[in-house]
Amino acid sequence: MSDDPLLRVDDLSVHFGGNEGILDRLLGDDKGVVRAVDDVSLDIGENDVVALVGESGCGKTTLGKAMIGLQRPTSGTVSFRGQDIWKSDLEPGDIPYKEIRKSLQMVHQDAGNSLDPNRTIFKNLNPALKKWRPELNLVERRELVHQMLDTVGLTPADDYASRYPHQLSGGEAQRTVIVRSMLLEPDLILADEAVSALDVSLRVNLMDLLLELQEMFSTSFVFISHNMANARYLAGRADGRIAVMYLGRIVEIGPADEIIKNPQHPYTKSLLWATSGLSEINDPIETPPVRKIDIPDPENPPSGCRFHTRCPEAREYCASNTPDLSGMSGPSDRHEAACFDAHDRIDYRNSDPIADDFDIDVADDTEQPAD
Fold first, then answer.
1. Is cis: bond before 331, omega within 30 of 0?
2. What is the DSSP letter of 42?
3. Which of 23, 44, 180, 337 has the fewest CB atoms within 10 Å, i.e. is most exposed?
4. How far apart are CA 24 and CA 240, in angstroms?
């Protein structure tokens, strides 16, 4: 993997809704704003694999779309090979936006709805080739489609090319969508919950296919999932990383094996606890390692560390200070966590623990005089 990143995300934020007038911005009125992504920085290398995991609504899909140019950021930058993908005034040597979009592709979660039901598989795949590979004639495009269908196991290719989407199984439709992206020879593919709708056995087969294609075409993958087991399988086998998101921010990132066996952020630990087959790897506990089950409102996220309202290790310092994502001491310099406890901050240690609501209620009860 090159030292220079293929894609760099720097202090990226994506906000939705709220008051968007000039006066509101000048006065700092952000009422009703959903901070889907907040100050995220991330590098993706050549032939790299990063699995983004987190609960629904944590901002992982919005971050992924911003990374490949499908969502304009509110602030921050996304750079492809050192160039801001939203740069409008191109200079000699710059990469045209058209080429950047061709290099950054996406595999959608619902493959069936991303295919035209009134067209055969070949006619679904042909337009992308016709647009991006104008030097190919119809016969050459058809041959290339057949080769890629063979590559992903859709054989006989001529039979599958003449089928309609409703004649495909869920796994076959997902493979077809992968073919559509791979035909453009992209540098990076965003796979958004690409296996979540499939049976467990089919998920493994499809993830193995993605890994084979990554090795075959040296393509980088950003794999979005709410399932830690899927993230571990894909990132682990590719020597990639797992990035854990919570309320718009990456709270921990590192090699898959370290994230699974040596999690540092309490939220990562709670995800592992909730994942069958992974909760027993570390010290097993019976109760959820969170203070509260409910997720805070993304329009009004907690101050300081956003996880402090649910964190069993939270102290008063966490409520008023935001931890940076910084490196952990250990076998890998790629493991980072945004947690005062993990980094053993003195200010954190010297502050008082945050009392649970339950503890407060108990205290109130004991102070009431007896009848």
1. no
2. E
3. 23
4. 42
The one-letter code for the residue type at 72 is R
- Per-residue pLDDT tens listing for the chain (371 residues): 446 799 999 999 999 986 555 555 555 556 678 999 999 999 999 999 999 999 988 999 999 999 999 999 999 999 999 999 988 777 877 888 888 989 999 998 788 788 999 999 999 999 999 998 899 999 999 999 999 999 999 999 999 999 999 999 888 999 999 999 999 999 999 999 887 767 777 888 889 899 999 989 999 999 999 889 999 999 999 999 999 999 999 999 999 999 999 999 999 999 998 887 776 566 666 677 788 777 888 888 899 999 999 999 999 999 999 999 988 876 667 899 999 999 989 999 999 998 765 443 433 444 444 44
User: Model-level pTM?
Assistant: 0.87
Token digits for 351? 């502050």
**What tokens were used for 305?**
């560390």
DSSP codes, 171-200: HHHHHHHHHHHHTT--SEEEEESTTTTS-H
Q: 7-118+164-367 sits in which CATH class?
A: alpha beta
